[in-house]
Amino acid sequence: MASPSPSPASASASASSCSSFAIETLTLNATGGGALIPGLPDDIAELILASLPYSHQSRLRVISRSWRALLTPLVLFPLRRRLRLPCHHLLALFPADPSITPPCLFDTATAAWAPLPRMPCNYHRYGLSNFVPVALGHHLYVLGGSQFDARSYPLGHPIASAAAHRLNLAAPPPLSWERLPDMLLPRGSFACAPLRPSENGGDGDEGRIIVAGGGSRHSMFPLEGNRMSSVECYDVKEGEWRMRKGLPRDRAGCVGFLVKRDAGEEEEFWVMGGYGDYRTVSGVVPADVYYKNAMVLGLKSGKWREVEDMWEEGQRRKLGAVAPLDGEDGQVKEIFMLDSNNIFRYDFALNRWIKESSLPRKIPLNGSCGFVAMNGELYVLTTLIIQCQNTSDQRRVSKKRLTIEIQIYDPRKKRWRFLTTNPPFNRLIDFKAAVTCTIQL
């Protein structure tokens, strides 16, 4: 007989007891076992240790008992808030199916990588693609997607997934994924956005996640799959999905984000791009019909409104990669798009994409790249293989090393800078299939 799950009150009580126990342990070690860092006052040592990058914390916990207690997330995160240390975003990179290839966190400030655990493996389902990761607080969610099922017929035909998983980065190590209730409808390639806890929501408001549209298309079959228009929302506190008013038309392959431009206006959920209907070329080959408009849902009114076409006929075939840029208050302030080798800024008043800049290092026509916005900057990621020559022994064969080249653009200063890093992967990353998101710690 399964044991009953703990209530939210008991869970919060246990978390607070663990935090108080860790703080008490830290105090005992610091007073009875010597200083945190010899020769420095404990308040300065706490500031130094609290400023360590996330990727280094797990390796430094073994230094001493006091360091292990301090670098525990239940102690470290409240300490960072008390010290008013600035929060910054980390890049979460999913190069392939997260149940096979483990995702990683990348800290752009230190160019350091931190591996994350694999998602639980299902022996009957494989090849997860077109899933959507989203961050809410210290939690990382992986929702939906399209995958293959060895029990289905015909074999090799992808089906949509309704699975939802969550990873708590503030939990004590080792980290592990938690299975959440499935979405009401299976979907992949959908618009998604986190709804942070409102100021008037009280202590019981833990935020929500809204998803819209989607379909069953898989990255291996780019011309197949269905479309859908349904919208549903996940309540983190209640742990359940609820249906919302759907889109006026079917839309898949779209992107979603929240916008609140003025203090008096309601918060809006924008759904841009994607494809709906399809047409045939020469009466045989199916071709997607891409949307040039956007749909906007008022979160208070619950009504959809349509934003007219955002570009003229002939300017582009479809919407490029979109990256919303958050302001200092965490609200989306500007929307940017990477189209070919150019970056565009969306003008809300004109309903047009205005050219912002061009990439200094051009990407080939058929090349793949990642595009993400965090910490007030735009990041364009590409992968390449570099030959590492052995200078000590010329007779040895040179090794090949995977490198990610990042072009970073600051919209405020209008300047570019470059960064290269060696990720902990052993194969090229296809950013047409890879998925990225950002999480603030």
UniProtKB/TrEMBL annotation:
The cross-references to CDD domains, in alphabetical order and at most eight, read:
F-box_AtAFR-like (cd22152)
Identify the InterPro entries for this entry.
F-box-like_dom_sf, F-box_dom, Kelch-typ_b-propeller, Kelch_1
TM annotation in the entry: none
Name the Pfam families for this protein.
F-box (PF00646), Kelch_1 (PF01344)
Instruction: Give the top-rank taxon of the lineage listed in the UniProt record for this protein.
Output: Eukaryota
F-box domain residues: 38-72
Q: List, alphabetically, the SUPFAM superfamilies matched.
A: F-box domain, Kelch motif
- What name does UniProt use for this protein? (wild Malaysian banana) hypothetical protein
